[in-house]
Fold this protein.
Amino acid sequence: MESGAAIRVEMTKWGDRPHWEYDGVYLGSDEHGEWLGFPVGTHYRRPGLDFVATFDGVTLVPAGGAAHLAAFNDERAKAAVYVDMTTPAAWEGHVLRSVDLDLDVVKLQDGTVYLDDEDEFAEHRVAYGYPDDVVAMAEASAASVLAAVTQGAAPYDGSAERWLGELALRRR
């Protein structure tokens, strides 16, 4: 895909239940994967909730089909890093699709790191019937990402700054 191409992200919950949808721009790729940009003014919507971003963010679609999507936000956002555990994301043309599996690793601007929504994951794995292999994948991905974010390992080592800068340049 060409840098600057318009893209769309369509997330669902298990069982094809609608979740977040939003538009952005394809920024490029590096050794970590593909980078997507979402500038101030991006409209995020899901059933029962929508908001317009007051911050710039970039999302990493990890190389190798890892089971998460990592968002890196500028200093105006509450969370500097927000990683959704998902099924491996797949492109269908210019639309990126994935299933959100509830668990999130969050790093606040003050450096606090935590695993979020364990209760939601426990509830949904029963209510929606997550298969055992999907549960194991989400739990393993969450543990791996939590360790990497806590340790500041790549790509949670400032690698996203290049792409936040690229997004800012596109607005000029």
About this structure: The chain has one domain: 6-162.
